[in-house]
Amino acid sequence: MEKSKAKLISLATGAILFAFMLWGNPFGLELQAAKVLAIGTLMVTWWVTQALPMPVVALLPLLFFPLMGIADMEEVAAPYASSIIFLFMGGFMIALAIEKWGLHKRGALSIIQLTGTSGNKIVLGFILASGLLSMWLSNTATTMMMYPIALSVIKVMEDNASQKGNISNLGICLMLAIAYASNLGGIATIIGTPPNVAYVGYLERSGTYTFQFADWMKLCMPLSLLLMWVLYLVLTRVLYPNRMPADGAAREMIHTELKAMGKLSAPEKRVLIIFVFTALLWITKDIINAAQAVFKLNDSIIALLGAILMFITPSGDADNKPVLVWKDTRNMAWGILILFGGGITLAAQLEQAGLIQSLGEWIARYAQGGIVLLFVVTIVSIFISEVMSNVAQVIVFAPVITGMAVALNIDPVQLGVAMTLGASCAGMLPMGTPPNAIVFASGRLKLKHMLTAGFIMNIVSAVLITLFCWYLYPAMIEVVRR
Fold it and tell me: Per-domain residue ranges for the chain?
């Protein structure tokens, strides 16, 4: 089917469902609630079918809610300037500076050099480099950066005629490792992946719980590292063993790349200092706030401080322009910020209309609590994110999960964290996440490779996330909340 026809069908489907929910009112809702449900149905339909760019769909509340008398423009527009959005904006700008001056590439090559150049160690190096970078950069940017480096390593290994082992399996491992580690690394920090930002923003807005940056890291970084270790074992020991010994040519290529980069340049040093300073503030914020009463730091303020310092600090190179200039922000994902705002607004109106509470109570009638419910929520979240944007998924389901948890008298954050972490683990399909699509386009993967590895990692991720949230989360959250 042509794209234009598919787009028209998607647009028409959303419009028909909107009309049906509003005038057909199949659930017998009050008029105000029917209006909100109709708009929510329209947005979700267009998000899932990609009838329009996701940020454009996220602007619909600004049009429909005031137009249909649901809320005035000031109320609707307020979530588009939520503090969590400025946290992500600051993180984006810091990441832009890291990418602009090549600090990310130096870090990745250094990690790979440290891990060694046997087949398995190369895979481990790429997993660590991709995962650690993705904690601070977007998973898409991380994959785009690691992808050409991986192709270079594979080419060097292929050109070495004396190389033993299975070079084809090494290529498959590296492509999958980059994509999956970029996804899994992001769950360790709030800014590492959009679903985390969306869920933390929902919790903050609803007053359920406020996650500090360091709190999320303490809670989720151990799980992130565990998932990356399991990924390494699954790829290299179970699915695609390469049995390739250490290779001097690959080691020389990495050494040459690092040598060509030379010592840390002045801009790199200044970006690194600001980045480390920002990270330390995120980690020690509570101690600083408790020690004085002149000012109060929060995660969003710290992110903006780090970003603004990038625009203030001279680069120290020949031009001596600031580390970041405004034209650099043309490459920033502004649409993600709009998407968060639209999702928060939609969730707020669904809640105010009583729809979230009603849905949660309805689901609770047929659901049982306990570890089985936690596993079901996690695995459904993982597999839904294979075909639906994980950001939109969390935006839509966060209030539903909360309503269901309240109706079942269980911790809504425990269930919501499981759902959110699961949304970042899709690995079966190229369209599951941007990193999946990037590595699939390399031509070194067949769909069966991604389906096999992705299905196994989906199941493993679901099990580990469930066990983590059921057994470790209650103890860890108590430590975090002290």
Answer: 83-331
| Mean pLDDT, range 351-356, rounded to an integer | 77
Burial (CB count within 10 angstroms: exposed 0-12, middle 13-18, buried 19+), residue 464: middle
The segment with the largest mean pLDDT, out of 165-174, 291-300, 318-327, is 318-327
Give the pLDDT score at 427. Answer: 84
Nearest CA-CA partner of 458 in 392, 378, 372, 401:
378
Rounded CA-CA distance 433/387 in Å is 9
The pLDDT-based confidence of 323 (bands split at 50, 70, 90) is very high
